[in-house]
Write a structure and sequence with these properties.
10 helices; 3-stranded antiparallel sheet; elongated; alpha+beta; about 400 residues
Length: about 400
């Protein structure tokens, strides 16, 4: 009795088989993918007579992971087939483990990984036998030789390094601590190889972390506690940025310092209380000064209001005065015109009268003839009712 079990689909008719082959063309109806006669015969043979069912699995695994090379014929019976399948599967698992597992367990500097990933904002840097290679890779997946080439991602975008717990002594001998100083910096991509060649992957430890410790201590040693904590605290950020950038520009030009943020230092509690009391008194003084300034502002405002009101009244008075002067000037002008008209009229009358007298005088002069005088004499005597003769009247 045979131990093999074969299942036959009684409902798989000729129409269904033809439709199965049509499905190879896909939704794009690419009939170049339609199986040829050999593929169709392969399907019919295994469908109607599946004598060796494991042969399909072997073909798939071989073509997928080994490539287009011909598969060697199977040796022996079922035991030989099973052994070959296990060999291919183990090889596949080993390759996958060698590529994927080390890369997933360690994002950087995996000695055993072949495939590695460079994240966005980083570049890939490589060492072979301890020597830095000039190869710089961009973000994405890349391959390297395991056990020989080491890989390290280097950030080339803005990054913030936090330098913590920085002790320093002031000029007066008081020990203070800066809890945190943040340095925003960037390594330019063009200088990655040069910077790492000279200072290694931990370049920021030398030029940022250690440099911050040095510059803070140098600054504090030349200042008193009051200057560090109050008077010159607002200048520390800019001083640190300038000091870092000067040395980086000179010795590591690829490092760009964008900003430095310094937190308030921690000082002894007793001294801190004195500063707080001093700040309270200073605040009171500032409040008094502000109140005085407010009072002065209010007085100044009242004065400006009074000046504005007086100026407004002066402007109104000026306008009225100008209006009155204008009216007076108009009246004076009118009177001058009237006077001129009267003078002209009187002059005309005088000229006419003068002309009349002149003409009458000329006429009278023409009348002074003996005959006219005798006539006048006779008329005058004729008009007198009485005539007296003799030497006395």
């Amino acid at each position: 009795m045979s131990e093999k079990i074969c299942s036959v689909d009684a409902y798989y008719r000729g129409y269904d088989i033809g439709n199965h082959f049509n499905e190879y063309a896909g939704f794009d109806c690419d009939y170049s993918l339609y199986p040829n006669k050999d593929a169709q015969y392969h399907f019919f043979r295994h469908y109607l007579k599946p004598d060796v069912p494991q042969e399909e699995l072997i073909d798939i695994v071989w073509k997928t992971w080994i490539g287009g090379a011909p598969r060697p014929p199977l040796q022996g019976g079922d035991a030989g087939d099973t052994s070959f399948i296990l060999t291919v599967l183990i090889a596949f698992i080993a390759i996958a483990a060698l590529i994927l597992i080390p890369a997933s367990l360690s994002a950087s500097n995996s000695t055993f990984s072949i495939l590695h990933q460079v994240l966005e904002g980083h570049v890939g840097v490589y060492w072979r036998g301890g020597a830095l290679l000039k190869t710089i890779t961009d973000p994405g997946f890349h391959l390297k030789m395991p056990l020989i080439t080491q890989f390290e991602p280097v950030q080339v975008t803005l990054q913030t390094d936090q330098v913590k717990d920085i002790p320093c002594g002031t000029k007066g001998g008081v020990m203070i601590y800066f809890e945190k100083i943040e340095v925003v910096n960037r390594l330019r991509k063009d200088y990655v190889y040069e910077t790492l060649l000279n200072y290694g992957v931990q370049y920021d430890k030398l030029w940022i972390y250690d440099k911050i410790h040095h510059e803070i201590n140098h600054f504090c040693s030349a200042q008193s506690l009051h200057q560090v904590y109050i008077d010159k605290f607002d200048q520390i950020d800019e001083n640190m940025k300038e000091a870092l950038q000067v040395d980086c520009t000179r010795y590591a030009p690829g490092i760009e310092i964008l900003s430095v943020r310094v937190t308030k230092p921690t000082i002894p509690q007793s001294i801190r209380r004195n500063f707080e009391l001093m700040e309270e008194e200073h605040s009171k003084v500032l409040i008094s000064v502000e109140q005085q300034a407010v009072a002065e502002k209010e007085a100044e405002t009242q004065r400006k209001i009074a000046l504005a009101d007086a100026e407004k009244r002066w402007q109104v008075s000026k306008i009225h005065m100008e209006q009155m002067l204008s009216e007076k000037a108009s009246a004076q002008r009118q009177e001058e015109i009237d006077n001129q008209m009267y003078l002209a009229r009187e002059k005309s009358l005088a000229d006419a009268n003068y002309y009349k007298v002149i003409k009458e005088a000329e006429a009278n002069k023409l009348k002074l003839t003996p005959e006219f005088l005798e006539l006048n004499f006779i008329q005058t005597i004729a008009n007198n009712s009485k005539i007296f003769f003799g030497d006395k009247v």
